[in-house]
Amino acid sequence: MKIASKTSTNLLTCHASQNAIESSVKMMRSKRRVLTVVLFAFALVLEPMLGQGQNTLDLGAFHLLPAPERAEVLLKSNDRLAICGDSITEQKMYSRIIEDYLTMCVPDLNVSVRQYGWAGEWAPQFLARMTNDCLRFQPTIATTSYGMNDCSYRPYEDSIGQNYRKSSTAIVEAFKAHGTRVILGSPGCVGKRPPWAKPDGTFENISVNLCALRNIDIAIANQEQVQFADVFWPMLNAMITSDEKYGTNYGFVGADGVHPHWAGHTVMAYAYLKAMGIKGEIGTFTVNLKTGKLTVSEGHEVISAKDDVFVIKSYRYPFCPCVGGGQAYGEYPICGQDDLQDDNSIRSGMSLVPFNQDLNRLILVAKQGKAAFYLVSWGNQSKLFLKDQLAQGVNLVTEFPCNPFGEAFARVDAAVAAKQVYETKQIKELFHGQEAATNMEAVVNSSEYEHEKFVTKIKDAFAPVTYTIKIDPQ
Which CATH class is domain 67-275? Predict the structure, then answer.
């Protein structure tokens, strides 16, 4: 993909009806001027870097409004999360990352999750089915991911924006009327012109169209006072960065330019988890190398500490981007076979956004050391660190992506994945099948009985993990 830039006075002008949008965001003009300068500089920097590929994207064609500031913490204990969206949601990848994270990394919140993805869906189609399919389960919080199909894969025009605004606003208002807190997600980006695009649709004008729908989402979020998850800009930024880091054959948004593999879904999950106000503090282990004393943060327990060998029991997990061979469910990445240059890698996606830094911090701090170097062993992996590195703290998840949590994580992930597969069947086949047309409540009751079995399997799979950390002076 080629990134171009222009210095004309209409830099960052979006082919959209801006009057309605800008009337609701006048208070953000000063921030927008700053963003314009940043994006202009970004475009100028990227132009000499990225000259390969068949697609051309002119950053000067975009008008990215600044995203609203996030709430401190949006998730609450015992929340019931509904993840709503189109075929990208029905891929059950970013939704699986989110449910894995909420189940294992913040188990104290006890959040339950359902995914409602439906391939090919537009915002008005979800609006038509949300009472039957979603609101009956009384979600307390919901994420939405629409706009990709609503853009019609052609140049933006006012009717596209008006229809999207009308349906998206109605979705938000319906959720609010039922006491559901909303995270209004923007559409993502495309990586190329999809094969099914309209004849006048190009990579660039479809991208500009999606940008316009993102801006409409911001206006709705401000108007309705709900949370906004910016998926478009982090994905566009990650796509550009991945071209630079991994080459233009890296398919960040998938082979068809719309449906990402694990890397793209990792960036999507990151955007939604950040919008939820997740703090990312998995745990901190602090060792006094002089006295041999170990203290651990909430969610972890010291079993023993002797001769620089520390046994810990953890009741919350870090997020594992890969698991051991034979443990993975479906196409979940396998440690040792996981290639950072492969867009089907969660670790690769983590290299494009600060996932571990912001959401996945399991920190080992070792102070009062006398040796210049220390060999840290965790499970069957070892790594050498400077004394000063350990004194400042190292993120064990970043340093040891294959770690003692992998096997337990894989068991829970498999149960989560199986549940989400059933949820697609429950909604698309059972709730909209022949029996449901004559006796909906019977279908709901019988399918919920089956659904609860999957929920129980997740709970049974999630168990404390006991492991050893050894710190040897060198």
Answer: alpha beta
